[in-house]
Design goal:
A 5-stranded antiparallel beta sheet has the order 5-9-8-7-6. The chain has a 4-stranded mixed beta sheet with strand order 3-2-1-4. With about 250 residues, the protein is α+β, with helices and mostly antiparallel strands. It is globular, with a radius of gyration of 21 Å. It folds into 2 domains: about 90 residues, 2-Layer Sandwich (Nucleotidyltransferase, domain 5); about 100 residues, no CATH class. The chain is about 20% helix and about 30% strand.
Length: about 250
């Protein structure tokens, strides 16, 4: 058995197995409403106990379907490189399983806030909201300078458990200045603030993201600050509302 396994092509075996799992997944009942997109989370992990031929640990970059909980594709990260160079091969592997990436929403960590990643996902008609941290200093500064006090809260959730209370507040805005947001295909800026209270001590964590055009698709629930809900055909459209022209 060992001799058989070491002769198998790991990439081909992974594609066959993930495709088989995906094909056997039962559709949701009831199905998700049309406003929901298929969301695939990209994440990398080092395997315990697994070693390559040169003795190095094996690191995989995986794509998880958040609806079904199934890993639908994964690629081995080159030991001489990192997850960044494995992102596009992972997109190719996911596309091979799904057949198309049109409308699929990918999520990934700040490591993948790369212009090349944004271009590749857009070329496949998929979408990649990205986290913005110090690895993109100019973009990070631009998002932090937005006048958030003028932007209404789009969504807020509260949670309690394990001796702590958490509040998540989301604000979204479309930046309409010439040139927009300084990142390919990004039109909207989102700030998520997490406030946590534990034993009377309060801490806050803020995450900045840029979002490509698909945020315009859902017309249910909170909308970005300068997006109007659709107007029924039997009503006269309201007068245009000024866009937020933030620097």
């Amino acid at each position: 058995m060992w001799r058989l396994l070491i002769r198998l092509d790991p990439a081909l075996l992974s594609t066959v197995l993930t495709g088989w799992l995906h094909a056997r997944t039962r559709p949701l009942c009831p199905p998700l409403p049309p406003r929901y997109r298929q969301v695939i989370a990209v994440d990398g992990k080092t395997l315990r106990g697994a070693r390559s031929g040169d003795g190095r640990q094996v690191h995989l970059l995986s794509a998880l379907d958040t609806t079904t909980g199934i890993v639908i594709a994964q690629v081995t990260v080159d030991t001489k490189s990192n997850e960044i160079t494995s992102f596009v091969p992972l997109l190719d592997a996911v596309e091979k399983v799904l057949g198309t990436l049109t409308g699929v929403l990918f999520t990934a960590g700040a490591l993948h806030t790369r212009t090349g990643h944004a271009e590749q996902t857009a070329a496949r008609k998929a979408y990649l909201p990205v986290q913005v941290k110090d690895n993109q200093p100019t973009l990070f500064k631009q998002l932090k300078q937005l006048p958030r006090a003028q932007i209404p809260v789009g969504d807020q959730t509260r949670d309690r458990g394990h001796g702590r209370r958490e509040t998540h507040t989301v604000k979204a805005v479309t930046v309409a200045t010439p040139g927009g947001i300084g990142f390919p295909h990004a039109e909207q800026a989102i700030r998520i603030t997490r406030t946590r209270i534990v034993a009377g001590q309060t801490s806050r964590e803020t995450t900045h993201l840029t979002v490509p055009p698909p945020a315009r698709r859902p017309h249910h629930g909170p909308q970005p600050a300068n997006l109007d809900p659709p107007t029924p055909a039997h009503q006269e459209p309201p007068p245009p509302r000024p866009r937020h022209d933030f620097p």
